[in-house]
Amino acid sequence: MSALLNYKLEGEGHTIVLIHGLFGNLDNLGLLARDLKNDHQVLSVDLRNHGISFHNDEHNYDLLAQDIKQLLDHLSINHAIVIGHSMGGKAAMKLAAIAPEIVTRLIVLDMAPVAYTTRRHDNVFAGLNAVIDAKPTNRRDAMAILAEHIELEGVRQFIGKSLFNNGEHMEWRFNVRALEKNYWDILGWNTIEPCSIPTLFIKGGLSEYVTAEYQAEIKAQFTQARAHVVANTGHWLHSEKPAEVLRAIRKFLIV
């Protein structure tokens, strides 16, 4: 049994579990948590190798789902709505597969239950490793190194949230070595048995992560799936268009 995930629990009512994506932490879905905690108990987690949760050499969806189930058991949460973004969406889908008695509704933000073949993060890993090698002593220098590899300011700011000073130099909270080693497992997916839990896939209209070609695989694995597209937004739909995403979530929860 692994150590418990770091978590934050807010609000009261039926539990909603929020699961972040790759290179994130439990604050990434904070815009959603801020609203949902008004009438639900909201459990936000740091996945293994992220935030201040434990580091481990292994990182795959079976383990991510088991980590979350272990935390739910520890907190005596027997029923929960589960919301996951990107890698966290796949962890949420795997949790529904291994613990269907717990997951009452499932909401997946911009992710499909498929194995992706395109490496989208090689420049990110290059930047992370450059910071590790250089051991900068302040945040400004670390971000300057990151900028040599990561063109988009928004991505650098997102990644930079996981920088901290270990007393000697700047360091990453996530386990870069393990995430890079297990990257194909993160992109990958093992098809699950058909799941009848009511499921909502919310897609960014401009994103390439959920496309029409994946529709058959979604329907085969999630028999009660429905879809909602948030127009004019990409993969980070929950931070770009939080009001629209929340509206879709709340509509789904009252049906």
Automatic annotation (TrEMBL):
Keywords: Hydrolase. Coiled coil: none annotated. It holds the Pfam family Abhydrolase_1. It comes from the Bacteria. GO terms for molecular function: hydrolase activity. The keyword Cytoplasm does not apply. Residues 15-242 form the AB hydrolase-1 domain. PANTHER family: PROTEIN ABHD11. This is Alpha/beta fold hydrolase.
